[in-house]
């Protein structure tokens, strides 16, 4: 089990996920996309979840919202939100919680809005659903305010426009407006900037940042862009093959990654100061087949440290907590302790 | 919007004229002499010539066409030598029968296709989905006349629950006074409940037989579209607002899945409205399909020509309505 990083501010927790396990039944048998994972998110905290495609990031997001569709299913887990356990596997109950206490911003702004409904209707839909006794007229007013909040010009008039009449960046901000509609305490943003150009990315992150400071919303940012994590997040969780292999504060991870996978991820980010070294390093091999995981550490076949070592091949590593109590690092690696102590020497330079 | 509609309207009229020219020329170029068929094989050349002259067959094709179209537009659709009555009279009795059958077959096919496609995709139900796909496969492969005969054999001959191939009504039932020429509607309008029930009972088997293939076609299309749309991220986004599965499906998945199906549904409707030869023959249905096949064999050109024009009009009108509907439903079309 992944123990959530215990923060000194943990009375401030808004979301706590424990023992989440999600499986999909496919041609190759049962595939566990999320394997017994836990995490804690505090009020107004920005948590980054990073990992390669297929590492289970999105599956985790959908599991927390209870939106896993067959042939997928949530096998076990509990979600604690705003002071209580929520029945995240009960669709009927979750309808009152989704979009109100926790909401989702989805990756592709091109396909995340219904092409045949106008923007106003799509924002109002969630407002009318959750706020009883609100007339459509009042909801419309709220929608205009929301659009103004995410800096859509001429909000009142543009309410009647359809998704194809907006640019990609605007659509992503509309998505944020939709997610914000009922003032949730947690927003899960699944690759909110992936399909956008760098400038628009920055705008979207600015909007998110404002929500955190002004409204105390906690944001879980799912991405494979380490630059965005470094810039935006307080805390990072590195996901590999359905597990969090490393969790720590953001500067910790960039200065001294403890898990070899984290280190390899950082190495493979293009950096101007490393250009003269020639070929961009990449992680050898590909993510493991989740239907047939290695017996020991799931990263062993690709690991620069543990590849071929007896212990890595045979034993599944347990979570080791290293570092100071104030800045704990949790890593699932047999060599976490040694590596943590020596890691300062291994990584040169400033954070990405 | 109005401009687009007018443009399409002009195009539609042109298409009907095109169809009239092509069909007219083809019917005249075909070997065989309609006048000979009228006067009989033994008639002398002089009477043949006088009939040809009377029918205008001695004129060039272009003149014949001009005469035909002017009288057609005036409502004079010619005289059917096969039936011995004006074409308008013959069509007035035959067309409603085909229209009524085609309309109900379409209604049945469309409603059933929507329901089955929803059942197969609304939840992950591999068994239901398999049954729906199997039925669609069967419906597309089976010949309608064979299916019709089988249905008659079971429901009429063996179990006797439904009437046999005796047309639109039982021999003992008199047709209701004509208003719409649809027996079911006319019967209801006059409060003749027993006539209504009789008309419906006579419609069941032919409508199912005629609607089977269109149903299969539509259900396959709709099912595939619904599956595609329900996997779109925006459905998850809708659900993440707290909207339940049913509303997400009804409000968002269904309208999006319908769009590509609309054109297909239009073509199917037009096809069903223009009658079906084999199904009408099997059920002894007094529609235009059977009439037209007989007329082709008799070279009763007036009937065939009228039929081609009417079905071309049906296709064009249905397509026009579909195009306009697209503009109403799909904002992306509306703007461009």
Detailed description of the structure:
The complex is a heterodimer of chains A (352) and B (336). Chain A is 31% helix and 23% strand. Chain A is built from twelve helices and twelve strands. Chain A has helices at 57-64, 91-94, 119-130, 136-149, 155-158, 168-180, 198-215, 226-232, 250-255, 260-267, 310-314, 336-346, and strands at 13-26, 29-42, 46-50, 72-81, 84-86, 102-105, 186-190, 218-223, 235-240, 243-249, 320-322, 329-331. The radius of gyration of chain A is 21 Å and the shape is globular. Helix content of chain B is 76%, strand content 1%. Chain B has helices spanning 2-29, 34-39, 45-55, 61-73, 87-121, 126-141, 144-158, 183-189, 193-230, 233-240, 245-273, 277-282, 288-297, 301-329, 331-335, and strands at 79-80, 85-86. A two-stranded antiparallel sheet of chain B has the order 1-2. The N and C termini of chain B lie close together (9 Å). The mean pLDDT of chain B is 87. The A-B interface holds A 62, 65, 67, 69-71, 91-92, 94-100, 103-104, 106-108, 111-118, 125-126, 129-130, 162, 164-165, 175, 178-179, 181 and B 123-124, 232-234, 236-245, 251-252, 255-256, 259, 329-332, 335.
Structural domain count of chain A? 2
Whole-angstrom Rg of chain B: 24 Å
Which structural category fits the helices and strands of chain A?
A: alpha/beta
Spatial gap, N to C terminus of chain A: 30 Å
CATH level-3 fold name of one domain in chain B: MetI-like fold
Instruction: Give average pLDDT of chain A, whole number.
Output: 84
CATH class of one domain in chain B: Mainly Alpha
Characterize the quaternary organization of these chains: heterodimer
Strand content of chain B: under 5%
**For the terminal residues of chain B, how far apart are their CA atoms?**
9 Å
Could you say what the CATH topology of the largest domain in chain A is called? Rossmann fold
Order of helices and strands of chain A: EEEHEEHEHHHHEHEHEEHHHEEH
